[in-house]
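User
Please review the sequence:
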Amino acid sequence: MRFTRFFIALLLPLAMVSCAEEEEPEVETDPRTKFTGNWTVSEETAGVATGTYPSTITLDSANTTQIVIANIFNLGNTATVKASVSSSNLTITNQSVTGISIAGTGSFAGNSFVLNYTANDGSATESVKATYSK
């Protein structure tokens, strides 16, 4: 009888461990998806509000690390730039859109993101702070 109790006491913890639920591995999500959708952009130039306008952001189907931002600088829906996304940050390398060079960086926090960029039309450079919110 002692042997049986000893045997049960020894195996019971092992049986409980083997029956424990395993944690499911975290599913890795695409960091770009938080940036996609229809946004309202509030823009400031040199600290002065210059207005609001709509913008649409989509995934870049040709590059799994990039998004496409339409209507940047309120230049129209056909005026797009590509931005690289890493975690909650994005980077626009210098790109020409309708004759305006645009480059900048941004970061996502909460339900919105801020994009700081420069827009140079060849005669002057403007520093822009654009807040994207849904």
